[in-house]
């Protein structure tokens, strides 16, 4: 379910950051978020774990153990805290009832394929925990979960090591079977704990993990110290029963140390009442022959009215997945058993109905050498009840299955509503993300057409006032013999030529941080020092111009096949800049400086950069090589003293072109 993947995402984001999760999910090829009640393929989780190991550089067992610890906390935060705390009064009872918890959760999470647990107590106080799962390679999650639960609920530290790892042969499903040895770590006094925590650490294994090394002598001293100074030991949480036994007295100061049940000499209930009062129960012997059955189960499986038939003819075991034998059932007697009716043994008219499942516990009756199966119908909703043509009346009034069906009906309705809300939330998140991407594209396009601060003012509906710039440098360029080229070529060839040239020029505007004002036909106009005033405006435009001459050599003349030639003119002076028009607004420059810069270009020489005297003065002491052209007649301006820009004395061609 998505709950698992959401937990994994939360772990990565919380401990390693959003960027690590984004990198992880992209490498794993999975989506960014998961719906809690949606079923996802196991491969997604396995892929995330695998990529996490590679990105974080951590072994898989450590990643899974950390995930197990976090999963326990995640479940508590998600509302399962109270449910987990009530599973048992000690760690043994807690583990023993995990299957029952999974069975309950499966009522809501119907596609859940949870692992199974079986626990055995050893004489030395340790336990053997048997873990069964269809999913191989995830067993290291278990020590993380169980260790976190033991510390949080029972205030004990445990260690878990794998003592056996096989394919379970006794089970009908080929499942991974891992046996863990669970031991409780010694509890030290406060002083002893700090003493041992300061001991030096050494590499423990090939994974370079470190463990505290305690020799036998120190351990013995610690135990003696605990006996002598019991009052200063760190407090250990006691169970409710231990507390009660310590304070309740009977008679003359005798402590109540245990409970001995009292049984009647004979059973005060007749057979008919028993079978009616427990309508869903079965008694069968070692050969699986049915000795007794409740009235409701007889109604659902008519064949059971014939005493002495074999139980496995009418039922199969769904959970746990074990062979239908007494020995297998006894081995898993602490587990909840789920039986399912066999379709081929049902009356012909019933075979189209869904098969009924029964869930309950097994109890071995040693004196009778028989097994008692106390069960109830495993039904999740009223719809499932109707499909099997059953009624609430078929279930005993004392059986909480009645309430469970009704409550789960409401729970499933709430889950469906929650799922719909989660889907809508995810759709809104995706739409919001797409909207943000489109907004960025729109802004990028707008900022390519207008200066950013001007575009922002227009977006906010403000009036953009014209600004005066006391000094800036303007450049014009055009293609030599462009009119002749147009006359001899197809329009598409002209478009391709100009596009190739302008792409190169546009890249150079970014390299030298100059502002592209406009292009008209083959004319290209840029400015330095506008819209953001900078003292180096002339140097930037000069370097840009040198780059233009080099870039133009890479553009082919469609007529001659030779590189095109351009003229470039530069002038420095004051301008007025502002936005004109409402439809397709443009950021324009006004003033005589624009006219003179245009004249420098039109009176220029092919493949040369023509400078006015003011531009020359700005570049005079800036490491540029320039030559004097002399006085020329400029249309509308009379005689002007001009110059040619040759090169930048300190910058290489790669630096001018912005190449690495």
TrEMBL record:
GO molecular function terms here? GTP binding; guanylate cyclase activity; heme binding
Gene3D superfamilies assigned to the protein according to its UniProt record, in alphabetical order: 6.10.250.780, H-NOX domain, Haem NO binding associated domain, Nucleotide cyclase
Q: Which InterPro entries match?
A: A/G_cyclase, A/G_cyclase_CS, H-NOX_domain_sf, Heme_NO-bd, HNOB_dom_associated, HNOB_dom_associated_sf, NO_sig/Golgi_transp_ligand-bd, Nucleotide_cyclase
Q: Which UniProt keywords apply?
A: cGMP biosynthesis, Coiled coil, Cytoplasm, GTP-binding, Lyase, Nucleotide-binding
A Pfam family cross-referenced in the UniProt record is: Guanylate_cyc
Where in the cell is the protein located?
Answer: Cytoplasm
Enzyme Commission code: 4.6.1.2
The domain of life is Eukaryota
Name the chain's protein: guanylate cyclase
Q: Which GO terms describe its biological process?
A: cGMP-mediated signaling; response to oxygen levels
Q: Name one GO cellular component term.
A: guanylate cyclase complex, soluble
